[in-house]
Amino acid sequence: MKIGELAERVGVSVETIRFYEKENLLCQPERTTANYRSYGEHHLEDLAFVVFCRNMDMPLDDIRKLLVLKHSPQASCEPINDAIDQQLAVVEQRLTQLHALKAELQRLRAKCTGSHTVGECEIVRTALCGH
């Protein structure tokens, strides 16, 4: 299949596929006599796997390691579990940071009630004073 068909089947752009190729997340496709890229089912499967991992917000380096495991069906799946555990820890840390950000925004919003001018705005004053 050509790159456009591959992109359509997985739901990504042609540029995304080229990026993943440059990042060595997809093996280089064969070329036709007209020098077009020709992708096989293994490209489709690997691309779908990469997109799945990216949707889980996994770093490219981790995806590379997981792809090696994907192509080693007899290997232990423990490294896959470890990668998921690491990603869960990253998500937990982000959630903590987002909750702190939400609390700070709520605190700021509570400083300014009613209708005031920008010159009287407690949010602006807080930002300027660094408090």
From TrEMBL:
All residue ranges annotated as the HTH merR-type domain in the record: 1-69
Xref: SUPFAM superfamilies: Putative DNA-binding domain
PROSITE patterns: HTH_MERR_1, HTH_MERR_2
Keywords, sorted A to Z: DNA-binding
One protein family per Pfam: MerR_1
Record Gene3D superfamilies: 1.10.1660.10
Keyword DNA-binding recorded: yes
Family matches, as CDD domains: HTH_CadR-PbrR
UniProt cross-references to InterPro entries, sorted A to Z: CadR-PbrR, DNA-bd_dom_put_sf, MerR-type_HTH_dom, MerR_fam
PANTHER family according to UniProt: HTH-TYPE TRANSCRIPTIONAL REGULATOR ZNTR (PTHR30204:SF92), REDOX-CYCLING DRUG-SENSING TRANSCRIPTIONAL ACTIVATOR SOXR (PTHR30204)
Protein name: Cd(II)/Pb(II)-responsive transcriptional regulator
Protein source organism: Limnobacter humi
